[in-house]
């Protein structure tokens, strides 16, 4: 076992020498893989209070004032609370899409640290972490589920909390079209009935933390929450890497 560990460390050192770590936005050489240089880090809009107490949307309020955004007042989501690490804009979009579609999976541990910081108030309630699933055909073509990678790294960050990731608790039973082409109402229709709880015993009476890369209208999270709650989950909270605010 020690020999294997030694070889792994040796290979990592060799790769670091041959292929120096680069900023995931601008490509500048940096100290650690999957991170940002100081200049690019300053361009990321990390979300902080004040926010909507339900969906986590940034609000212009006093720091100690609690309030719901207009969208949550109009239609309260099925999930209890949602939080995101950063605003989904031109800068963050590049690193999210690189992670999602371009095999930039080395960024997952860094993203997990951002997520743990953003979802601190949710993680204390969580019994199980469930990544939003991909349909098997999309998983086959992409080769990995970015939400599952994030969930795995979050669990590593919380290794003393004994919170486990349940990768197969929730399945996507039909392939849905990309949400990006639809209006808000169409997005809800697009994912309606798309998810199934594989084993209700796993989630019965548990507080669930749903994890995914991007939250836009919240339609996917809302539909996942609906099916989880219908199958016995005690509550569902949501944690996303980035959140659209328009």
Describe this structure in words.
By secondary structure, this protein is of the alpha/beta class. The chain is built from 11 helices and 7 strands. It starts with a helix and ends with a strand. Strand 6 (207-215), helix 11 (219-230) and strand 7 form a beta-alpha-beta unit. Helix 5 (108-118) crosses helix 8. It is globular, with a radius of gyration of 19 Å. The protein has a domain at 78-243: Rossmann fold, CATH 3.40.50. The model has no long low-confidence stretch (mean pLDDT 87).
How are the SSEs ordered, and which strands pair?
Blueprint: H1 2-18, H2 38-41, H3 70-74, E1 81-87, H4 90-101, H5 108-118, H6 120-123, E2 128-131, H7 136-142, H8 146-157, E3 164-165, E4 170-172, H9 184-191, E5 195-197, H10 200-203, E6 207-215, H11 219-230, E7 235-243
Parallel strand pairs: 1-7, 2-3, 2-6, 6-7
Antiparallel strand pairs: 4-5
Helix pairs in contact: 5-8, 9-11
Question: Can you tag this structure with a few keywords?
Answer:
246 residues, alpha/beta, Rossmann fold, five-stranded parallel sheet, two-stranded antiparallel ribbon, 15% strand
């Amino acid at each position: 076992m020690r020999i294997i560990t030694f070889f792994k460390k040796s290979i990592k050192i060799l790769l670091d020498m041959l292929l120096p770590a680069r900023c995931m936005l601008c490509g500048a050489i940096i100290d650690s893989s999957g991170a940002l240089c100081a200049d690019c880090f300053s361009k990321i809009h990390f979300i902080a209070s004040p926010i909507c107490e339900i969906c986590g949307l940034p609000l212009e309020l006093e720091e100690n004032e609690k309030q719901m955004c207009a969208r949550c007042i109009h239609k309260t989501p099925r999930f209890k609370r949602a939080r995101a690490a950063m605003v989904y804009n031109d800068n963050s979009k590049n690193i999210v899409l690189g992670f999602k579609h371009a095999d930039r999976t080395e960024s997952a541990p860094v993203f997990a640290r951002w997520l743990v910081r953003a979802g601190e108030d949710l993680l204390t309630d969580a019994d199980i972490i469930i990544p939003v699933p991909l349909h098997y055909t999309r998983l086959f073509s992409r080769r990995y589920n970015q939400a599952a990678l994030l969930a795995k790294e979050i669990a590593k960050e919380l290794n003393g909390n004994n919170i486990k990731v349940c990768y197969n608790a929730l399945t996507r039973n039909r392939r849905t079209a990309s949400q990006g082409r639809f209006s808000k109402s169409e997005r809800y229709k697009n994912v309606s009935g798309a998810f199934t709880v594989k084993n209700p015993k796993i989630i019965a009476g548990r507080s669930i933390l749903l994890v995914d890369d991007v939250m836009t209208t919240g339609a996917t999270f809302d539909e996942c929450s609906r099916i989880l709650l219908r199958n016995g989950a005690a509550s569902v909270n949501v944690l996303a890497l980035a959140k659209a605010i328009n």
